[in-house]
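Progress against Task 2.4 (sequence-to-structure conversion) is shown through the following example record, which the project officer requested during the mid-term review.
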Amino acid sequence: GGFIAGASDLVNFLKHRARCLIFTASLAPSVAAGVLKALQLLQEEPQRIEQLWKNTRKMHAGFKSLGFKIGSTRTPIVPILVGNEILAFKFAQRLYEEGVFATPAVYPAVRFGEAIIRTSYMATHTDEDLDQVLEIFERVARELGTFEDPAYLQLNALNHALDFNLSYQGGS
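Structure tokens generated for the chain above:
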């Protein structure tokens, strides 16, 4: 979403030249039907939402107890502070090799030197799934020396002191 403010010639030019607007149309009927069905399921099966929040609380607590900094996120999308951009890519690769799909976010998506591993959870994840993810994260962090990295320790201490909000998504 967003908007354009400017002279009508500029707005018209952008509408016809901006890649994000070219060939855009309303939702396909199949997509609209899928959204309606998802909303219907959420109304009929509120336990799905309850399970999602249970899983979210478990992962927040689990990562914090292992010494990871997750900021003040309150959503099922949990950013894990890594700090070093290169380490973030290595970390994500090792997670993938261990069967965990998590994506790195580096500058300019986050502030330089504050790279994260972005994880997300669903209601369909079991306790066993979540425990396995925590075990793999801890093992990979120790293997890569994440907890011993001076930059990570410095960022972690600074963020702890400032209670920094790692859900920030802008550049510097």
